[in-house]
Amino acid sequence: HTLVGAYYQRGALFRSLNESERAMKDFEAAMDLNSRPGGDQNLRSSLVSVLTELYLNTGNTEKAARLAGGANRSRIEYTIKLAAEAEGRGEFGKADEYLRSIQGEIVVTKDDVRIVEFLKKRYSLYEHQGLFDAAFDTLRTLLSVLEGLAISPAVRFQGEQILVLLHVQRGQIKEAVKRVERMIGLVAGGML
Known about the structure:
- The chain is mainly α.
- The chain has ten helices and no strands.
- The chain is globular.
- The termini are far apart.
- The mean pLDDT is 83.
């Protein structure tokens, strides 16, 4: 399956150049070729992950949901377990890598509990390393994507709570107040 690998590699290069459309075409071609009998399941999982992320980042939420909708729930659970084990060994980078590999699949599940757990886990990994700026940027980006998918007010509220904490840790009290005001708006607006 040399052609599958070539499409995958070129797609990865296009992705690193922020050429999302070209990257998606190559990853889709690799997925199509890999879907034939004898296809590599690990490669398929990687392709599902990267394509879901690209679809979400380019606003193709329906494609992302269709692709990740077929994702194996036990694979998600297993990957979360691997991330927890890596974190327990102090391998935070590896744990984050595991979580990023299923991020798109988790986002499109629209399972509030799973999404909030995921947000907290991503935050916790960065917090343990003292990387508050990275935690903030990651969570803000995730919440932005989730809002584009019309997430529930409960998830928005809990996401705002985490961002309030991050603002306080960064000494950005005025920004924290704005986030709390958003939370109050969710409650006062009868959304919770």
